[in-house]
Amino acid sequence: MNVWIAIGVTALGCYAVKLLGLLVPAGVLDRPLVKRLAALLPVALLAALTAQQTFADGRVPVLDARAAGLAAAAVALLLRAPFLLVVASAVVVTAGVRAVGA
Amino acid sequence: MAVGLSGFAFGVTSAGSGLTLTQTCALSLLVFTGASQFALVGALAAGGSALAAAAGAFFLGARNAFYGLRLSQLLDLPRVLRPLAAQWVIDETAAVSLAQPTRRSARIGFAVTGLSLYVLWNLTTLLGALGADAIGDTRAWGLDAAGPAVFLALLAPMVKSGTERVVAGLAVLLGLGLLPVLPAGVPVLAASLAAPLVLWVRGRRERVRGEEGR
User: Fold this and answer.
1) Residue of A nearest to B65 (CA)
2) Do B159 and A43 touch (CB under 8 A)?
């Protein structure tokens, strides 16, 4: 039951927030400051998420095989590899580093 | 395909966190925003309360509002279509649509990406949840690196100038530095403050420079 409550609240909240973005009047975006802010917010969020999911286990900072995997993904991105190859290289390198016991 | 991989990873992780097959699939069908789903099952597995877990997932999903802000102007959808389109407002559809040169191609990009990812995400979630037992430890397969790699691949094309680099760097410092201090899910929100902060500092500097030039 606890899990279903969590699922229900999350589903409603996440849908509402998606809809909110679409329903806000277009005029709000005509100001240059709002435009720049809307463009920069995803940069901040994605950077923080990438760092947290790579260098943390829950709330504890850690350095493990995922760091090597992310480095591989970064190299793939620099080489302009397609999306699938970027993600696959992260997965394969992470698994490889763990396999050799690092 | 990368989404397929993360969908699979989510199905496996969710099943491993003790959620039933129905619960796992309900999450992908109804929530349909990967980071929030990963955050929710992670928090539930760690013994977090339903509301605390949902709050963390909600905060992660809040970024979709900002994608929506940009997409509503770009796509200019009729009002009746907006509640339907809303469910597809996610990182990937925003990235694809915003990269299109015209409104027509942005609309096509949004619809095609939205539909194919929705189908793929839900199918691979189901497969992952079913295959969880067969796979065993997802970490041994490196599947926990799929999420951050997806985020990095989405982030890379957005970083075009020094401003974006400073924002990203500051967000990383805030996101990691605040992890041990704030409740789960909140550090990411705090890190998003890097965007207005950098804009404010830049604005001040430009004003000061303008006054010196007089």
Assistant:
1) A21
2) yes
Widest CA span of chain B, in angstroms?
Answer: 71
The tens digit of pLDDT for each residue in B21-63 reads 999 999 999 999 987 898 788 778 766 678 877 877 887 787 7
Strands A56-57 and A60-61: antiparallel
CA separation for the pair B71, B77 (Å, rounded): 9
Structural contact between residues A23 and B77, judged by C-beta atoms closer than 8 angstroms: no
Residue of B29, B28, B39 whose CA lies nearest to B63: B39
CB-based contact B179:A56 (threshold 8 Å)? yes
B128: left (phi over 0), alpha (psi -120 to 50) or beta: alpha
Exposure string of B175-209, with b = 16+ CB inside 10 Å and e = fewer, is bbebbeeeebbebbbbbbebbbbbbeeeeeeeeee
pLDDT tens digits, B93-106: 998 898 888 999 99
Residues sharing a CB contact under 8 Å with residue B182, sequence separation 6 or more, in sequence order: B190
Q: Cβ of B168 and A47 within 8 Å?
A: yes
User: Chains A, B: CB contacts under 8 A, how many?
Assistant: 290
Two structure tokens written together for A100: 């050799």
Is B61's CB within 8 Å of A70's CB?
Answer: no
Q: Which residues of chain A have pLDDT under 70?
A: 26-30, 102
